[in-house]
Amino acid sequence: MGEQTGTSARIAGQRDPSEGGTPPVIDAAFARWLADRAGQVLLQVREDVGYADGKALKAAGDKAAHDLLTAELARWRPADAVLSEEDDHSRVAWQEGEHGTVRPDRLDASRVWIIDPLDGTREFSEEGRSDWAVHVALWTADCSSPNCLAAGAVAMPARHRTFATDKAPAYPPLPLAAATGGPMRIAASRTRPPAFVTALAEDIGAELVPMGSAGVKIAAVINGEADAYIHAGGQYEWDSAAPVAVASATGLHASRIDGSALKYNQADPKLPDLVVCRKDLAPRLLAALQRHLP
Ligand SMILES: Nc1ncnc2c1ncn2[C@@H]1O[C@H](COP(=O)(O)O)[C@@H](OP(=O)(O)O)[C@H]1O
Ligand SMILES: [Mg+2]
């Protein structure tokens, strides 16, 4: 009778569960769902493309994760604006009065998803490395949450770990080393650490822990593998929005290196420096930063 039977039959328009199914309604759980899905896609890209051509692998990963995130955001949150690393930088870097540029929609939006489809792109392209992440954050104009970040998720697919604000991780315990007077461990970029950070570490008797990805470094502070993350010299809102949302939900300190607030969904998405650390270390670190800032 032309009727489909059996488990493989699907009603027109119904989504295949292997494609992700219906996502959670709550924004923070939705952020986790999105980051996890992009993470699975990135693991698949690594498998399919291989490591022989690092540039091709980075490009394929960036594109696949960006396409998935923007498609799902358009499908499930069509009224919201998006700021993504993979967007046209000339458009997002709009400044009032600048000739020939168009004010981006996100500057008038009340909800903006700030996403970094692949943070730690370099590490993603190196076989065996797991220090790369997917960042999904939600900025809201009502500013009722710290830094106006209402939700955030950081997926670390190669570590099978996701931190998100739907289940804020516990505040990191005081590490044994610190309790017994051992050195403070400061996570820093393995390829572009701030020029002053070595002198700062020497000054306060700290140890530098190099690793890739801003998300992975902030996750290291959240889970107690590092005591602080310091970055300066260049970064964008998408590099820190999601991990800062999770760090704040956990109760950690997060600010610019001069102690001022981190601001998101600005006309210019450059956000070149930050410090994330346990609250008890913030006064000491900010004082040391004052001494070492150029
Ligand atoms: N000086 C700089 N200027 C611009 N972006 C920088 C930067 N230093 C680090 N970043 C960005 O911050 C993220 C984390 O860097 P790192 O791994 O070196 O700590 C990376 O994001 P992407 O991988 O998304 O490009 C990297 O591009
Ligand atoms: Mg990034």
UniProtKB/TrEMBL annotation:
Protein name, entry field: 3'(2'),5-bisphosphonucleoside 3'(2')-phosphohydrolase
Species of provenance:
Actinoplanes friuliensis DSM 7358
Gene Ontology terms describing biological process: 3'-phosphoadenosine 5'-phosphosulfate metabolic process; sulfate assimilation
Q: Which Pfam families does the entry mention?
A: Inositol_P
- Gene Ontology molecular function: 3'(2'),5'-bisphosphate nucleotidase activity; metal ion binding
Q: Where is this region: Disordered?
A: 1-25
Membrane-traversing stretches: none
> Which InterPro entries does this UniProt record tie to the protein?
CysQ/Inositol_MonoPase, Inositol_monoP_metal-BS, Inositol_monophosphatase-like
Name the domain of life: Bacteria
Sorted alphabetically, which PROSITE patterns does this protein's record hold?
IMP_1 (PS00629)
